[in-house]
Amino acid sequence: MLSCRACFRRHVQALDVPTAHVLRPRSHVRSIPAHHGARLLSTHQGVPSHVDDPDDGPRPRQDRWKRSGVAANVKKREDAALRNSNPNSNLNLRPTRDETPNLARLGHRDPRIPETDWNRRKRELRYLQDPLELATFVSNELRKDRVEEMLQLVIMASHSMECVVSWNHIVDHYLTKGRVTDAIKVYNDMKKRAQFPDAYTYTILLRGLSENAHLSGVLSKALSIYHSLSAPNSRVAPSIIHTNAALRVCARALDMDALWGIAGKIPESGPAAANARTYLTIINALRQSLLLNGPKGETAEQAASRKDRGIVEARRMWEGIVGRWRSADLIIDEELICAMGRLLLAGSRPRDWDDVLSLVEQTMDVPRFVPRLGTEERQLAGLPRLRAPNVPAQHRFDDDHLSPDSKGMRGDEFLALKPQGMSSMVPNALSYVRPGNNTLSLVQEVCLKTVASKASQDYWDALTDPGTYNVVPDLVSLHMRLRNIRQARASAQAVQLLQEQMIDKGIMPRPATYRIAMSSCVRDKNNHNSMKHATQILNTMLRLQEDVDAKAVTMFAELAVSFPLAKGSDLVDALTMLNPIVRNLRLQLSVGGQMRGNQGVGATYLKGNARQDAINALRRIHGVYDRLLYSNLIEEGQKASFKVEKAKLSSFIRRVMFKDGGDQSPAAKAVSEQELEPEEVDQHSYPKDTEDVVEKKTERDTRKVSERPRPLKYGWPNKPTRRTEREEAR
């Protein structure tokens, strides 16, 4: 239809379009293909009819804004608002970063936390919605020493949840590391963030402060925290656990005034009443004050009187303990009983030492195997009076009372209890404490101080009997039993105990074990078998120990020198026994053979006091050679080999001493070093005590320089022979 140009112009004029646009030649426009039945007129209402291309027309002003980042942000905020207004909408199906409750309440960033750490803690906090999960995560990360990171995390979590347990973990970690100031700072910061401390918080604080009681200012901080529990606005009531922790701080700080101030406020009954741990802490603190808190310049009589006053106070307290135990208000244990017993052993009176056996009988139902002091039974038994040379004269008698108005004899508070009332009809109505190794070592120590050798053996047999108490002795109890054997001069029993009670039962002896056993043989030197027993102990040490103990070897050599019944064969056997020991000691003093990677296993190189002990042992062995060679115990023909060994040993001792700095003893060196301290010596002048020594040394050096041969023109003269030197000396 529109194949001719005239027809096309007529149709265009009907559209009310300027003719100039139609008649203008358009060479760049492609020819319109003829499509039969196609509409040529657009029905789109948004584009004017006279605009050929929509892109060529004027654009709305909103187009560029819609394509900007600001519009995208606005659209994102609109979508978020729609999701919050309609939770069931389909737009809320995709989660966002700020949908968790703890992050929604997070607020602005703390300026003390860097932005990078803030974002990292947010990512961690997104998966910690529960306080328990947070506390577990904090506890695990603190083991990796991520303290600062966990503190930031807990601070951020405090905005949305109660995380007191996590705060407690951080406080406990700081106290474990000894950072008391940081722990107190975290505790105060915790309260500022509305995280109120609970009972565990105060327990952790007081317990941690007791472990750091050696630091300055810890006691005052502990007392301030403990007294804050009794404030009217305190959310936590003080319990006996808090009281025990505060008493422990005072005990370790050796402040008895503060300790008695806290103990005086403990109620007599109720949940906050004292328990066994409370009395144990007070008794141990009292014992430490008697042993360590003595004033300077105190005489022996004053020290004995001070100890006696402390023990009288402990005796009065024990009466209250027994009363509460008898009325079933208190449960006592072995630790409390032994603490009271060791407090009595710290006293100056023999009566106090003897009362320990009554204490064991009262609380454990272990009968006494020796009568009490001051009783008729003891006099009839024919036991000697106690030898107490270090006890003042006014404290050696047994007729002193607790106070002038007391009617009973001193020690009646430890008498065995008699059932009363309905309990008298029931046998063994009281629940006695079962003894253990602590009791066994305590009883052995009492027998040692009261010189009761037979009672020591009776108590040992009774407590270790499988049919009664079946106490398996440990190393401490065995050492105390060896000391009683040494006091009784029973070297044969020492060897038997070492073999049957220790080696056969798999208990490895220590160096101290051999020293005590060897000293038993030295004390029993008048026994003709003591040398034989000492040789058995030394053989055991060589078989079980890699390196010999120098002090035990010294005792063996002293026994060989001072043995009054020694024969030539005994000394020869002793030196034969000491020959491998000398080689071991020489190896320890010279090169050693310590582990270097996976190579070199042998003797340990000795230093310090251990080195001096080894040198002393070699000297004592040298003395054994002297006794054998300078006596007529063996024939002269048999002494040649011993003279050679003695010369080798003497040469080695002199070489080691020269290498270590001369023949000066450690005590002399300590005195000389003390005299030459910088604050006591004028560094620009010689000390008065060493002026003669310096003058002699200067004179000797001058004489050596003057006697030095002068050099010849072409060299030094020939060295004079020994014969020429002897002739010149003549």
Automatic annotation (TrEMBL):
InterPro entries: PPR/CCM1_RNA-binding, PPR_rpt, TPR-like_helical_dom_sf. The keyword Transmembrane does not apply. Gene3D superfamilies: Tetratricopeptide repeat domain. Residues 50-66, 681-710 have a biased composition (Basic and acidic residues). Residues 38-115, 662-730 are annotated as: Disordered. Pfam families: PPR_2. It comes from Plenodomus tracheiphilus IPT5. This is Pentatricopeptide repeat protein-like protein. PPR repeats lie at residues 163-197. Residues 82-94 have a biased composition (Low complexity).
